[in-house]
Design brief:
There is one protein chain. The longest helix has 52 residues. Helix content is 64%, strand content 4%. It is mainly alpha-helical. It is built from seven helices and two strands, in the order βααβααααα. The chain folds into three domains: 64 residues, Arc Repressor Mutant, subunit A (Orthogonal Bundle); 52 residues; 33 residues, no CATH class. A two-stranded antiparallel sheet has the order 1-2.
Length: 162
């Protein structure tokens, strides 16, 4: 006669106290083992804090594997990955702040250059008013403009005089 065996449901421990009692340790020790050495604990809905669950079989297997873990210095890779991610985010935020300061400095530099260019253009416009290049030199009464016309090459004078 073939016997049917039902798969036994794993015994689930809920809360730090029951997990610590099963392992024969204190609650804080078990919490430290979870953080530092990867004790197989589950949290509902992926929360980082709050209620915890564990199965007796996983905890017993974890304890049985502890000599291997000590030999190979295995730690919780999830927490190491989390720490690397946090450090990477902090580094990117610091880089973002530095780039922002550079952008503000460059914006001020561009603003000053534009102001200087605008002033230079205004000074050139003032120097060229009234537009004497189209006026024959005999009609110019302004002494400054007359000096400018005198320094102009003779070809340009002829073109402007015509």
């Amino acid at each position: 006669m073939v016997r049917e065996t039902k798969a036994q449901a794993p015994e689930i421990l809920t809360g730090w106290k029951s997990i610590a009692k099963h392992l024969g340790m204190g609650v804080r020790t078990v919490q430290r083992y979870e953080r530092q050495m990867g004790l197989p604990i589950r949290r509902p809905a992926g929360k980082l804090r709050g209620a915890v669950l564990a199965t007796k079989s996983e905890l017993d297997a974890w304890i049985a594997a502890s000599p291997i873990r000590q030999t190979f210095q295995l730690t919780n890779t999830a927490s190491n990955s989390h720490l690397r991610t946090v450090h990477a985010v902090k580094a990117r935020i610091a880089e973002m702040h530095a780039l922002r300061h550079q952008m503000v400095a460059l914006r001020d530099e561009v603003r000053n250059s534009m102001w200087s260019l605008s002033n230079s253009i205004e000074m050139l416009r003032a120097d060229l008013q009234p537009n004497t290049w189209d006026v024959p030199s005999t009609l110019v009464s302004d002494a400054r403009t007359r000096r400018l016309l005198e320094r102009m090459p003779s070809e340009t004078k002829r073109r402007n005089a015509n």
